[in-house]
Amino acid sequence: MKSNSLKNLRALESLMKLNGMIPIYRRPLALVAILSTPFSFLFFVDIFSNGTQLLAGSIGGLIFTMINAATMLQSDLLFGKIDLKFQQMVSTTGISPLTYVLGMASGDIIFILPGAVFFLAAIIYLASAGIIAVLLILASAFLTWLFFSLLSYLISRRVREMREIWPISVIFGIVFAVLPPIYYSIYSIPVPVRYIAYLVPTTFAALIIKGAVAGSLVSVVIPMAIYALETLGMIFFATRVSDWRQKNI
Amino acid sequence: MDPNASSVTFPLLVEELRKVYSVKGKETIALDGLNLNCSHPMILSLLGRNGSGKTTFVKIATGQLLSDSGKLEIFGHNVIESPGEVRNMISLVPQECRPWGHLTPREHIYHYQRILGNTREGARDRTQYISEMLHLEPTLDTEAVNLSGGQRQLIIVGMALSAEAQIYFLDEPTIGLDIITRKNVWNAINEYKRKNRTIILTTHYLDEAAALSDEIAVVNRGKLIAQGKMEELRRMVEYNTRIRTAKGFLGESQKIHGKLFQDNEFEILYTDDSMVEEIILSAGLLKTHVEISPVGLEDVFISLVGESIDEE
After folding, report:
1. What is d(CA B282, CA B67) in angstroms, rounded to the nearest whole number?
2. What burial class does residue B10 get, using C-beta atoms within 10 Å of its C-beta: 0-12 exposed, 13-18 middle, 19+ buried?
3. Would you list the domain boundaries of chain A?
4. Among A2, A18, A91, beta carbon nearest to B111
5. Residue A221: which H helix or E strand, with range?
6. pLDDT one-digit tens code per residue, B11-41
7. C-alpha–C-alpha distance, residues A186 and A99, integer Å
8. Cβ of B165 under 8 Å from any chain A Cβ?
9. In this structure, what DSSP letter does residue B25 have?
């Protein structure tokens, strides 16, 4: 009998190929589309700041790109559930819903990988970041991907029609990747609004990266602890509610 | 699967299964105490009109949907309480399923095998076996987006049949297939039956149900109306003869000896043998075309449900 972990690994690999590598190879235009928004934002930040905010633009770009992967996941999960009915077939294979979600999310990571690598390289170059800073940036990016992929999964469980997800995805992007202080400093907004910003997990993602590149590791500790706790909470919650079965489908 | 379980328990046992959909305060009863069973490996066809509850049953049985009450066991395992225990025993062709446009049939079956946990070599072998069985080879490396609707449906059937399951739930698997391809799928289904697998087939093609099934279950408004072999179902209907003739041909005295259905051009009278001779004589005298046949599955269905399977 196959061990469950081996089975899950095989499933992860295949889902990553089905949802990431093969479509990129056959439909490369999608890659350009995915990267166009964060690069456009970087372009405008650079223009309007006369090049002084290129680092902030790159930090925002990295977080935006990770959010993009989660937004794509919403559509992919719903496409698999509602349109293709692929999820129904996968559910009878014995793998867990979270394995399926992580496999599909891994496929979406392939799509955003070139952008993520570009922004990471830009941050390292512009901030002359050391190894500790790079590890913190990677940790922030990873937590962002995991937290928002699981959130996307929870959202996709509630949606029953493809058309419903399009406005949700737009709002998702604005709430988590455009409005929060990821492209700009949190200290540039009034104090009451700051408290609202602290409710958004991407605020901590940006604080971690900004603290890391500034070499202020002390300032990273609290945002990292909060973000890690939020992600653990999300993992706990998603694991608790994850079930192939639903009340209405 | 527990190898001893199948010898002492039913492949499928459903008792008083109930499901009510509730959307924005409006309740719709999908299953209203459904009973169903397969006492041994067989092909069981579920027949019913659209909305009769067939697909809801399949969704509950395959662990997609929560039921409200009732019992559903697969090889003695309680699907309602522990759906995870049966997932490795079942395979599914969902209703209205589509393949990924950017993948080829080979990639679909191969990667589905990998998700099932098969090794690379095992997945390749299984893909080859299924593609030969379903005659998929000519299009095996063509992206699904470039295939016909029937060829795409065949990919889904191939994926489901590639699983080494004990029970295959096939929800309208041959929809959109041409007659030759349908026959290929029928052959594959029969092959699985010979291997002692159970196939639960929902279909709107009555010829398919009649040709494949060991037993047929007729479901209406979420309830089982009848289940049995074709001959047993035939015996359930009041009349054994079907007479189809031009509208207006049958006299009033003949009509009262049976059950009459009419459409724009024809009348169909279900009656017993005693009327046959009289009607043949009348037809001969009036040189009118009359078709007389034993009742078939469609007639049984109409008799049990009240309307044709294709009507909504």
Report:
1. 55
2. middle
3. 2-241
4. A18
5. helix A218-241
6. 999 999 999 998 888 899 999 999 999 999 9
7. 36
8. yes
9. T
Are the Cβ atoms of B102 and A26 closer than 8 angstroms? yes
Class of domain B238-295: alpha beta
Joined together, the tokens standing for residue B146 give 């470039």
- Quick one: how far is CA A210 from the chain centroid? 18
Interfacial B residues in 170-199 facing A (CB < 8 Å): none
Q: Which of B66, B103, B160 sits opposite A246 (nearest CB)?
A: B66
Contact at 8 Å (CB) between B69 and B45?
no
Which two structure tokens, joined as six digits, stand for B286? 């009036």
**b/e per residue, A205-216, with b = 16+ CB within 10 A?**
bbbbbbbbbeee
Chain A interface, best mutation among B115, B141, B167, by max A CB count within 10 A: B115
CATH node for B5-233: 3.40.50.300
Residue type, B68: D
Where do we find the tokens 């096939």? B170
Q: Is there a shared CATH topology between the B5-233 domain and the B238-295 domain? A: no
Contacting residues for A48 by C-beta, under 8 A, at least 6 apart: none
Sign of the torsion formed by the C-alpha atoms of A177, A183, A184 and A185:
positive
Confidence of residue B172 (pLDDT cuts 50, 70, 90): very high
Size of chain B in residues: 312
* φ/ψ of residue B285, rounded to 5: -65, -40
Interchain CB distance below 8 Å, B98 and A89 = no
Question: Tokens 């305060």 identify what position?
Answer: B25
Would you call B114 and A11 a contact, using CB atoms and an 8 Å cutoff?
yes
| pLDDT (tens digit per residue) in B72-84 | 999 999 999 999 9
Compute the 3-state secondary structure of chain A and give helix, strand, coil in percent, each to the nearest 5.
Answer: 80, 0, 20
More confident: B1 or A132: A132
Rounded to a whole number of angstroms, the distance from the CA of A23 to the nearest CA of chain B is 6
* B97 in reach of chain A (CB within 8 A): yes
Residues contacting residue B191 through CB under 8 Å, at least 6 positions apart: B133
